[in-house]
Amino acid sequence: MAVARVTEIIASSPKSFEDAVKKGVERASKTLENVKGAWVKDQNVVVENGKITAYRVDLKVTFVLKK
Questions:
Q1: Which of 6, 12, 1 is nearest to 34 (CA)?
Q2: What is the pTM of this model?
Q3: Fewer CB within 10 Å of terminal CB in the chain, N or C?
Q4: What is the pLDDT of residue 2?
């Protein structure tokens, strides 16, 4: 029987929401072992002078704990 845990992280990208998700999962995988999935809880943008400067995502990352 496997036991999983969920942790919440925030990631950002100047390109897109998709890129922010990719960067968040890649970074989480460097710290957490056995990352199995992630879902986007929320997304928003940073606006400066009427232009989008960053795309941010709030991710829930699931990873399986070691025995």
A1: 6
A2: 0.89
A3: N
A4: 86
Note the pLDDT tens digit of each residue in 8-42. Answer: 999 999 999 999 999 999 999 999 999 999 999 99
Could you tell me where the beta strands, DSSP code E, fall in the chain? 4-13, 35-48, 51-64
**Cα distances (Å, whole numbers) of residue 3 to 8, 23, 55, 59, 66:** 17, 25, 32, 20, 8
For residue 23, the one-letter residue type is K
Find the distance separating the first CA and the last CA of the chain, reported in whole Å.
Answer: 9
Contacts of 30 (CB under 8 A, 6+ apart): none
Name the nearest CA neighbour of 32 among 57, 4, 2. 4
Q: What does DSSP say about strands 35-48 and 4-13: parallel, antiparallel, or unpaired?
A: unpaired
